[in-house]
Amino acid sequence: MGTVWKKGWRPITVLLLLLIIWEGAVRLFQTPSWLLPAPSLIIKEAIQGYDRYLPHLESTIMLAITGFIIGCSIGVLVAVLLHLLPGVQQAVYPLLILSQNVPIIVLAPLLVIWFGFGWLPKLIVITLVCFFPVTIAALGGFRHTPTEMKQYLLMAGASKTQIFTKLEWPHSLPSLFSGFKISATYSVMGAVISEWLGAKMGIGVYMTLASSSFRTDRVFVAIFIIMILSMLFFAFITLAEKWFVRWAREGMK
Q1: What dihedral do alpha carbons 189, 96, 79, 138 form, nearest 10°?
Q2: What region does 157 belong to: left with phi over 0, alpha with psi -120 to 50, or beta?
Q3: Which among 75, 59, 94 is positioned nearest to 195, based on CA atoms?
Q4: Domain map (residue ranges) of the chain
Q5: Comparing 90 with 186, which gets the higher pLDDT?
Q6: Distance of alpha carbon 79 from alpha carbon 88, whole angstroms
Q7: Would you identify the CATH topology of the domain 36-252?
């Protein structure tokens, strides 16, 4: 706990300072709450109105986690296949980059037209934003495996599969988890964007309803929820990284 405080007191102090300035500016200039609510009003709404956004929160969490798992699994699988099949990588890699140049906000309505308003188009949106960082990070980790260690295993008679499982895969884990961290934050935003385009529940729906009724305080509650969820997902991946990387290094000894 002491280590966490030593590392985190500076950003916490800056955040508190920004909130104090925000609160003071709103009160000083008497800004209407529908235009820019004070942090105190946002916190009050978050506490008193939890029963309104809690069901939406549960829906978004389930959608984000499911999409994250699917997207990361596809990202790892694609990275492994491209690494083991260099010819396929040269042919497919440009297509992977092009897939990220299509704006999700444009693609999502098409997915709704093709697949309806169920979970499938939403999961496709989250998968599209999650798999690419994982694929690129994993490929980078595979490429940065120490050449001398690979040559040593080749001289020892190791097969390509053994080199991958015993050397390339463990060495790729730090890079891979960097991709997981990026995808963890993307999954929450992808879930919210997909909910904007057609859903019955979710923080995206809660935000849309709040915006249409000029409840700006609720819009900010939704924004803070999204930020907190992203940070929690990021922190969970960071903890998992420490355990898996240590386990992989011990397995290489």
Answers
A1: -60
A2: left
A3: 59
A4: 1-31, 36-252
A5: 186
A6: 11
A7: MetI-like fold (1.10.3720)
Instruction: Give the span between the Cα atoms of 162 and 70, in whole angstroms.
Output: 27
Cα 3 from Cα 137, distance rounded (Å): 29
Cα–Cα distance for residue pair 90/183, rounded to 1 Å: 24
Whether residue 29 contacts residue 179, with contact meaning beta carbons closer than 8 Å, is answered with no
Q: Which of 25-39, 150-164, 172-186 has the lowest mean pLDDT?
A: 150-164
**Cα distance between residue 171 and residue 161, in whole Å:** 15
DSSP string, the chain: -HHHHHHHHHHHHHHHHHHHHHHHHHHHHT--TTTS--HHHHHHHHHHTHHHHHHHHHHHHHHHHHHHHHHHHHHHHHHHHHHH-HHHHHHHHHHHHHHTSS-HHHHHHHHHHHH-SSHHHHHHHHHHHHHHHHHHHHHHHHHTS-HHHHHHHHHTT--HHHHIIIIIHHHHHHHHHHHHHHHHHHHHHHHHHHHHTS-SSSHHHHHHHHHHTT-HHHHHHHHHHHHHHHHHHHHHHHHHHHHHHHHHHHHH-
Give ∠ CA 144-251-150 in degrees, rounded to 5: 35
141 is written with which tokens? 């980790």
What six digits make up the tokens of 128? 């599209």
Percentage above 70 pLDDT, the chain: 94
* Mean pLDDT across the chain: 86
Pair 60, 188: CB distance under 8 Å: yes
Q: Decide: pTM greater than 0.70.
A: yes
Instruction: Give the pLDDT confidence of 197-210 residue by residue, as tens digits.
Output: 777 889 999 999 99
